[in-house]
Each structure stands twice: as structure tokens, then as C-alpha cells.
Specification:
Structural class of chain A: mainly alpha
CATH architecture of chain A: Up-down Bundle
Largest sheet of chain B: none
Largest interface: A-B, 48 and 48 residues
Structural class of chain B: mainly alpha
Low-confidence stretches of chain A: none
Number of helices of chain B: 21
Mean pLDDT of chain B: 91
Strand content of chain A: under 5%
CATH topology of chain A: Fumarate Reductase Cytochrome B subunit
Oligomer: heterodimer
Helix content of chain A: over 70%
Number of strands of chain B: 0
Distance between the termini of chain B: 106 Å
Shape of chain A: globular
Largest sheet of chain A: 2 strands, antiparallel
Number of helices of chain A: 12
Radius of gyration of chain B: 34 Å
Radius of gyration of chain A: 21 Å
Mean pLDDT of chain A: 93
Strand order of the largest sheet of chain A: 1-2
Shape of chain B: elongated
Low-confidence stretches of chain B: 1-20
Chain lengths: 271, 400
Amino acid sequence: MTRYQQRFDRFDRGLHGFLMLSFLGLALTGLPLLFADSPWAPAIAAVFGGYATTGLLHRIFAVILIAVFLTHVTRLARRLFIRGELGILWGPRSMVPQPRDVTDMIAHFRWFLGGSARPKFERYTYWEKFDYWAVFWGMGIIGGSGLMLWFPELFARFLPGWVFNIALVVHGEEALLAVGFIFTIHFFNGHLRPEKFPMDTVIFTGRVSEDELAHERRAEYERLAATGELERLDAGPPSPRARRMGHIIGTAAVVTGITLVILITFALLTH
Amino acid sequence: MRLLSLLLTLGLCAAAGPAAGQTPPAPTTEDCLACHEDASATRADGTSVAVAANVFADSIHGGLACVDCHQDLAAQTEWPHPEKLGKVNCATCHEEPVAKYGDSVHAKARREHPESKAATCVDCHGMHDIKPSAEPTSRTYHLNLPETCGRCHADVKVMPAELRQTTGIVAQFQDSTHGKALMKSGLTVAPDCVDCHNSHDIKPPSEPASTVHRQNVPGTCGKCHEGIRTQFAKSIHGTRLAAGSVEAPACADCHTAHGVTRAENPTWRLQVVEECGLCHVDKLQTYRDTFHGQVTALGFERVAKCSDCHGAHDIHPMRDPASRVASANLVKTCSKCHENANDNFVKYDPHADKHDRERNPTLYYSARFMGLLLAGTFTFFGVHTGLWFMRALKARKEGR
């Protein structure tokens, strides 16, 4: 009987769910404006009930995303200050970039170029950390500029008007970066690369099999085996229902995302 | 039937014939109607020569005798008269309108092109059924004119080749706010064709004397839209147009000529932005890069369009203190939508260009930074992903 490790708890899976929902929603309601001169833009806006509703939905999704972000940060603060989990700041279970990420990356590139051994990854790999911190950066850039564009009169009380010029350009460019990155690189790393194809459901079921852990995150696997946690923390297989839901939601997100990438590419080429 | 009518005609006309040696009296209307009232009376080629007595009697010319117009028949002695009669000369009575007509695009077309079907008096006024323009049944009655003009101007078979693409104007006019007011609502104050083009002395827009020549358009529209004309005359467009500029817009450039819609029409309000952009190319481009321009491009008009900031008929250059976008007026102008706009707020550049380092330095460098960030991220991860993909495929083949 294969053992399973609990990788993401219910709370984080829920947050990721809301993150997906709001991110896809923001992309679907924002891209028509960014590519307003492309023929598909008014069509998508029309699906959402015209421009006014599209704008309203964009703001609703933005509020959801900000709430997700604040919830996550609050949770981190509680883990750090109340429960004293210093391990989230440094070490194998931390998201903070560390020297091993550099060496892992170099080793990974060696393997890409024909090296025989894959690097032994820990709980969070360097590309996962990049994804994670990119959201922080993106929240600051997109969230900040978005709020400025939402409440220009308020921000003009203390900021000169030309920051709105910057805010609009930066909002759009960062959106392209985020959407382009998530819908290609993140999808590839998480789901579409040959080892995972067609989908890794861990973000939906929360559980990863011991075999996969041993293959994908050797360092974490060995660490857990050494401390006996591998046996002690066996979570059992994910329910078929969770797995099925994961496939459905994941497939829908991947299909939507890749469709948007195709539309963006079309818009950029025909501009 | 035809034989019968011919016999009847010969008999009646012989009875009315003059005695030999006398100057024959001109035939009376009754004499003429003796033959022509027969609805089945025809020429040799079968076309009707019938004249309905009551229709003629009801017409404005009902009191005249046939020979007052068909003057060559006054001295006619042989009956029936030849089929081909002399041309009726309306100028006998209507000297001034005919003189004006002689100067018109219609008369000119007939002079220059013998095959032309351009309108003569009868095409607009009718023949034996002419009514004064004030009467609702008249072809030239205010509300009936578009249909009368449209009989030729909407017909590709009548219009000369070079004007064939203009045959849509009658339909356009019908759908326009002028056309609907006139033909649907029956508003007597709504313009019909001749209000803009004149009637007898219609001239093409290319002629400086034409009422619809570029320079004269504001005056023509201004006959009704007096307030707008005054505003426009003072504006940068109006003064340039009056000074003979061929680039400055006249009314129809923004409003169209025959398809004029109400200014509240959202579709038109969005289209007119593109109209401004035909001349102000770079300004349209930078407008489209802003939130305002993106929203209007999506088809939503409740954000700023050109006229919301610059005005419509009263546009002045920025350096003119009367301009809505003169720096002293900016807070007021922006406040129309952004209620709490302040001095800070109006430092926003609604035509910012991220490629223009001189005009928008902070924007330029922000955009450059973002460009590098995107290029860097996608290049790195593009390579990363590509290499990974190939290696993973290979690993899979090796069974690992």
C-alpha cells in the first residue's frame, strides 16, 4: 500500500482555490481592456454583460485576491509570532530563497544539458519559490497600481497625476507578465511537463504519494525518512472524489489559461 | 379599342376644324381634352397621351389653357397634331427659377452629356398635376421632397456612373435624425433636401458657390443651428476653415452629411473619436493607450472622449486661455467626471506616450523597466522550460 504525505492543508488548498478563481477572473475581465482593439475583446466583455459589468467583476475579483493575500500574510504572521514557527524563515521547510536554491538551479541546468543525476530538491524548489515571491511582487505592483486606478481622486490627494500614467502601463505590463507566466511556465512546471502530464492534483487533494515525493523531492523524502515522519505522517490516499474534482478544476483552469495565452499572442501579433 | 379611339378622334377633331381662309382660333382646353381625356389614347408606340381632366383642373395650372404651355399648338391647323411637340418652356412664366436652374448641376449635366437623365422642371414638379409646394399633395411639399429627389438619387439606373456610390444617401437621410424628424414625425422645421442644397440652383460641393461647399457648410447648417454656428466660428476649426484651410473640418466631417444622428447616440459618439483621429493621428494613438481610450475602444462611451475634454464646436488650442484644456481650466474640465480632481490630479497626462522620453520621462523609464522585466523573465524561463522539456522526454524514453 502506497503511503501518502500531506503536502498542503485544507486551508492553503482553499486559499489556492480562491487565488485561482480570482486570478482567472481578473485575467478574463482585464485582458479585454488591455487588448481593447482586438476583435475578441468586445466579445469577451459582452459575455460578462458589457463593459460596465466586466469592470465591476474585475473589482470584485480584485477584492477576493487582496483578501486571499491578506489572509495568507495573516496566517504567516500567526505561525511566526504566535506559534513561533521559525522554520518558515529559514531551512528546508522555508519559502525564503537560500544558497541551496542557487546550487539546485545550477545542478538542474546540468541535468537539462545531459548530466546524469537530478538535483535532490527540498520541500520547495527554486522555481516554486520564484512563483511564490512573484505573487508578492505582483500583488504590490498590480494591486497597488490597480487601487490607484480605482480611486484616482483619493491618491491624487498626495500623489502627482503622472503616477496614474505609470500605474496604467505598469498594471497592464505586470498583468501580461503574471498571466503569461502562470499560463505557460507555471502550468508547464506544475502539470504539463512529461513527468506530471496531464496534471498534478496535489494542490487540490493536498496529498503526494511517497514514490512521487522520492522522485521529485529527494532531499525532503530522505529528511522525512530519517526522522521517521514518512511513516508517522502517512495521510493515506486522496479520495477518488477529491482527485476527480482536482482533474476537473485543473483542466478547466489550464484550458482557460492556454486559450487566453493564444488570444494574447494573436492580439500582440495583429496589433 | 385603338381603332375606335382613332376614328373618334378624327371625327371630333374634324367637327371642331376651322373654316377655310380664316385665322384659326387656338384650340381650347376642351378641344384638347376631347381626345386626350380618353384614358386609352396612345401614341403610335403605345405610350399614353391621356390627361386626366380633373387632375389638371385641380393643379395650380388648372386655370390655364393647354396652349399656354404647348404654344406650338396655338397655330396648329392639322388635326390630329404631330406626335412630336415643341418643348414646353416654363420660363415663359417662371423666368427666375428657370434662370437659376440654368446654373445648376442638373442643367449643366444635361448640357454636357446629351444622354443625361438629370432632373428638369417636370421631374421634380410633375407635368399636368403640378401643385404648389405648400400643398401636402405636392411633390415639392416639404415632407415629400426626400421621396421626390430619391426617385433619381436612390436609383443606380438613373445616376451617372461617377455618382452611383452616392445612391445610399436617401436611405441614410431617412435613418438620420433629420430624416426621421421630417418623414416619420412630420416636423416642418426639420430640413429636407433643398434646405441644405437649394432647389433650382443646386450646385455640387466642389463649386465654391455651392451651399454645401466646405467653406459654406457651417453657414448652411447654421441657418437652423445658429447657436452652434456662432460657437464654431470662434473655434480653431471654424477660424481655420473660414481662412480657407482644406484640412479644418466642417460640420459634415464629424456629423456626416446625410446620416446625421443625434449627438446623444452612443455609436456615433464612439465613432467620432476615430473621426478626430483622422487628422490628429498621434493623439488618437496615445488616447488609445490610456484607460479612457481602451474603454471607448471596447464600445463603452461613459468615459472621456475627445469632446469631453476639448469641447466639440468650441475647441480652442491649449495655449488659448479659452481652451478647456488650458492649464488654468484643467481642474474644472477633469472635475466634470472626476468630482474631486485637484491640482495634483490634473498632472495626469491623458495623451502620455511611453516611448517619448522628453514628454513623459518617468513613464518612459517605468515602461522600459517593465519591458526588461518581462523580457528577462520570459527569456530565462523560456530557456529553462525548453531545456527541461527535452530532458524530461529523454528521461522518459530511458524509462526514468
